[in-house]
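Postdoc handover notes: sequence design on the structure in folder B. Input tokens:
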């Protein structure tokens, strides 16, 4: 099997699209996990400019996974666009849109979360 035949494999491209969706999912889970963990400790949800996230003892456990997964989300989105276009063009007759739609929803939710007050509080 040549390299081109391997890349044209429908199953491998689907799995690659799903794999690229791991980064936004890990960003969503880690940021929301930190936010709600801080909320449990405080007794109320954190407020920007009032509760500094760096004052929590567990900040270091969450900070690096959040930053790494966000950076990975940006790069995986760029790769996801290229692979999704290639997948769509090569499989026109039996195109399965489920992996593209599912991962697109994760990327959209990642952007919405990035533009929210939660990320503003985390970056404070």
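Designed sequence:
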């Amino acid at each position: 099997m040549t390299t081109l035949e391997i890349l044209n494999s429908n199953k491998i491209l689907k799995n690659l699209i799903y794999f690229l969706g791991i980064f936004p999912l890990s960003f969503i889970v880690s940021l929301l996990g930190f936010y709600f963990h801080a909320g449990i400790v405080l007794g109320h949800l954190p407020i920007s400019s009032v509760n500094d996230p760096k004052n929590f003892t567990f900040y270091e456990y969450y900070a690096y996974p959040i930053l790494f997964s966000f950076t990975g989300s940006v790069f995986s989105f760029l790769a996801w666009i290229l692979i999704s276009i290639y997948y769509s063009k090569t499989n026109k007759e039996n195109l399965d849109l489920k992996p593209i739609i599912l991962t697109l929803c994760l990327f959209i939710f990642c952007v919405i979360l990035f533009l929210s007050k939660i990320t503003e509080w985390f970056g404070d």
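Context for whoever picks this up: The mean pLDDT is 88. Don't rerun without checking with the PI first.
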